[in-house]
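Researcher: Quick sanity check before group meeting.
Model: Go ahead. Protein one:
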Amino acid sequence: MSKGYKSTIIRKYGTAVQVQRYIDGSPETLMETKALLGRAARSNSNLKMSESQKEGIFLPDFDIDSGDFVLNKNHREDYVVVTTHQEYDGNRSLSVVANLMKCNHKITLRGNSKIADDRGNIKTSFGEKYTDIPCYLEDVGSELRQFDPGLNPETEHRIYTTALNIDLTDQITIGYRSKTLSLKVVSLDYTSFPNLVVIEVAKDIRK
C-alpha cells in the first residue's frame, strides 16, 4: 500500500473544515482544509467530557496546533485543539492527529487594560478585553474532583480555550442554561497544553 494512502483518504472522505488561529487575542485568517473527524479513541472516566472529546486527522503538511479552533460548518460545530501529534510510517509522516474538545459556549472577558492617551500617558481602563471566544466548559463536581484532585477548592467550572492574556482579576461572562453567568477566575493553567489556557472559575458576586 502506498505511503500516501492516508492523504488520499483524507482528501476523498474528509469533512471540509476551517481552522482559525488567534494571535494576541485576535482571530487570524481562516485556513480551509479537510479532516477525518470522529470520537476520540482514548477513554475518559468522566462521561460528559468523553462525549465532548473528538479526534481530527489532518493532512501531514497542514499547520495545526494546540489552541487553534476547527470550524465544522456542515454540522454547526466548533472544536478547540488541545494537543496534536504526527502519525508516522517509518520516517514518513502520514497525518497530523489532533485531540479536540467540542466547544459548547462562548465567553466574554472584562478586565483592566492599559491605554495610552493623546499625550502618551498610560491609563488603566476597565472594559471588554475579548468578546465571544469559543470554549469548552465543564462543570466541576465530586466525580471530577476525584479524577483530578489538584483542582482549586473554589472551582465550580473549568474552561478550555485559546491562550488569551487573562489576569486573575478579570471577570468572565458566559451564556449558561438560558441565563448569563458572571464568573471570577480562581486559577490559570498555561503550561499543561501549549497555546491553550485552562481557566478554573467560580461564581462572581462582584457588581
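Researcher: Fine. The other one?
Model: Protein two, sequence then structure:
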Amino acid sequence: MSILDVLALCALVLWICLPFAATVIQLLRLLWFWTGAKADRGRRPRFTGLVLAMFFSSLAATEILHVEPFLTLRYLNPVPPEHRAAFMIGVLVIALAAWIWGGLLWRIPRRRAGC
C-alpha cells in the first residue's frame, strides 16, 4: 500500500466522519436553542442538507467500513461489485451537493415567496 493509497483512505474516512460530527454539533446547538436564554441562543439550526449528506456518506461508507450496519447495507447494494468505486464517488459527490444545498458550506441566497 503506497502513501497515496493511505492518504486517499484517510480522506475518505474524513469525508464520511465529517457529517456525523457536524450532526452532533448541530444537535448540541439545537439543545442550546431550546434551553438557552433568548438573548444569546441564536437562530435555530438547520438539518436538511446535513441529514442528506450523512445519508449519502453512509452509503459510501458501505464500501470502506467493515462493521455490522455497513456490511448488511453492502450486501443489499444492487450495484455490481466491479462498479462499486464509481458508485462510491457518485454518492460522495451527491453528499457534497447536499452540503451545498443545505447551506452548510457557504450561504446561497434563497428566493423568498412572492419575489
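Researcher: One line on it for the slide.
Model: The mean pLDDT is 77.
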